[in-house]
Amino acid sequence: MHRRACALAILATGFMAGPASAYMAYVSNEKDNTMSVVDTTTMQVVKTVNVGQRPRGITISHDGKHIYLCASDDDSIEVIDTASLEIVDTLPSGPDPELFVLSPDGKTLYVANEDDNLVTVIDIEGKKVLAEIPVGVEPEGMGVSPDGKTMVNTSETTNMAHFIDTSTHEITDNVLVDARPRFVEFTPDGKQAWVSAEIGGTVSVIDNQTREVIRKITFEISGLRAESIQPVGVRITADGKKAYVALGPANRVAVINTQTYEVEKYVLVGQRVWQLAFTPDQKTIISTNGVSNDITFIDVATDEPVQSVTVGALPWGVVVSPN
Amino acid sequence: MARMSLVRSLVVVAMLAPSVNAMAANTDPDWPCIQRKVPQLSLGQIWNGPELPPASKDLKDPAVSALVEEVAARRIPIAEAQKKIKDFAASLPAEQLAPKMAMLVQGMFDHMDAERSHVISGISRYAHKQLEMAAALRKQASDVDALREKPDANPDEIERRTEQLKFATRIFNERVQSLTYVCEVPTIIEQRLYQLSKAVSETLAAKK
Question: pLDDT-derived band of residue A28, with 50, 70 and 90 as boundaries?
Fold first, then answer.
């Protein structure tokens, strides 16, 4: 009896100590055409949803009601209701949508169409294509400035970051970066765009005023061949102090001090680290690990991996509910 | 005639399949898999623990080398293999844990990386054989075509050769099918090695 009371007390403290809010993380599993729904508090998969073919890019509406998912081989974007977890709509996307970004006002999606060298601009409410912007060969990474005025697309083969004015849908600047640029992330103050280069093995920091590369970040890990360091996903904390870069088959996430541009830590998470997402309270960052078929929760305060959770086959992207 | 061209188009489709994959992801023209060819792994991909002493290279400890052989075997479920590692760690005196575990990681890496490289060269050989079979099929198909064109050809002979061609095409296609599984094997070994190393890290973390 006494022992049971004790156990209950421990259980209660356990609950008290845990984070108060329960966010949901949504993970696209490229190989088995599913989306895993993971409770970020219990760190357990609560549901697996069947979606379209080859799901990759994933994002969520600002009110947290709808998930947008690139079903690359179905040439469409699926809209999933977060309450029912059912596909309620599809948006026109152009062929082979891989990655996209939602405008800060939540009304527009900018989609990279890998196969036909276009960025498609989609009006979410009207479900129509507003513009198709020709860019370099194999468009991939997409980023938008916090004020919504500038959108950046990277082209994998042309090795450029294309800066696009979102009011005119015209390219204003082309910035050469390293080989196979994959991802764009703006700093929260909008002053810089960070662009990762998978084959080049670097992250270029571009000044959003001058549109010039002001810094190139490189990575070095003992016991690893340089070619296995392939930077892909990039996320910067809301206070702008730290950047996290997923390093692909190096199986690590690099933690970078944004003031000094120095790598302060390499966190071993899982195999082929692809994309990253913060929880809204910024206490945790989650990585998708494609080959080990799991996601890893990293504590942002200590930069220690807390737990890995097995999801579907070849997890690609991740997004966390805002509320 | 319609049947004949069906057989021929099957052959063409089957022959195209592996080479398209090869072009999509790799520069090695003989590499048939959609997965990128990574001939060797590096230790840093699986190990973040303390530097491994050079001594751990020569696996002189019979208990460790026996354990390497055991856990590397894919017929043993991963959970069971991880348990074997933990049991072994638990059986060691405290001062031997770190050196023996270092030896174990190095041993598993060397063993499984070698096994993986062996599989990769096997895949290349398989793909090469497949190209030769494709060439033979092409010749067989055009020979049957030529035979059919002859006004005095023996219908039984045509029938027999067509059947042979169909059979050879079936074997070829089945080999194409198995290739998709075979191409997964290097990744399966890599996954297992990572999971085993993780079990080793956990035994070291537990003792800290």
Answer: very high
Residue B19 has pLDDT above 60, yes or no: no
- Give the pLDDT score at A323: 84
Q: Do A251 and A240 form a contact (C-beta atoms < 8 A)?
A: no
Model confidence at A22, in pLDDT bands (50, 70, 90)? Answer: confident
Is A5 part of any domain? no
Centroid of chain to Cα A305: 18
Across the interface, of A225, A268, A291, the residue whose CB is closest to B191 is: A291
Within-domain flag for A224: yes
Overall average pLDDT of the B160-176 stretch: 93
At A37, phi and psi to the nearest 5?
-105, 120
Q: Report yes or no: B190 at the A interface, CB cutoff 8 Å.
A: yes
Distance from CA of A208 to the nearest CA of B (A): 34
CATH number of the domain bearing residue A130: 2.130.10.10
d(CA A179, CA A156): 7
Q: Report residue A140's pLDDT band, with 50, 70 and 90 as the boundaries.
A: very high
pLDDT for the residue numbered A93: 86
Amino acid at A113: N
Whether the pLDDT of residue B30 is over 80: the answer is: no
Per-chain mean pLDDT for chain A: 92
Instruction: Look at A270 and B45 and tell me if their CB atoms are within 8 Å.
Output: no
pLDDT tens across B43-93, in order? 889 887 777 766 566 667 899 999 999 999 999 999 999 999 999 999 999
- Domain extent for A226: 23-320
Q: Which of A219, A251, A269 should we substitute to test contact with B (largest number of B Cβ atoms within 10 Å)?
A: A251
The whole-number pLDDT of residue A131 equals 94
- Judged by CB atoms closer than 8 Å, whether chains meet at B44 and A222 is answered as yes
Residues 6+ apart with CB under 8 A from B194: A251, A270, A271, A291, A292, B45, B46
Which residues does A172 contact at the CB level (< 8 Å), separation at least 6? A163, A164, A165, A211
Q: Among A70-79, A181-190, B75-84, which is the least confidently predicted range? A: A70-79
Residues of A in contact with B194 (CB under 8 A): 251, 270-271, 291-292
* Closest Cβ opposite residue B45 in set A222, A224, A293: A224
CB contact under 8 A, B195 and A291: no
Residue A261 lies in a domain: yes
Output DSSP code: residue B73.
-
Asked if residue B33 lies in contact with residue B183, where contact means CB atoms within 8 angstroms, the answer is yes
Give the one of B47, B48, B190 whose C-beta lies nearest to A291's C-beta: B190
Which residue among A250, A252, A292 places its CB closest to the CB of B191? A292
Q: Which residue has the tokens 């103050």?
A: A189
Q: What region, left, alpha or beta, does residue A292 occupy, with left being phi > 0 and alpha being psi -120 to 50 degrees?
A: alpha
Q: Which of B98, B6, B112, B119 is nearest to B55 (CA)?
A: B98
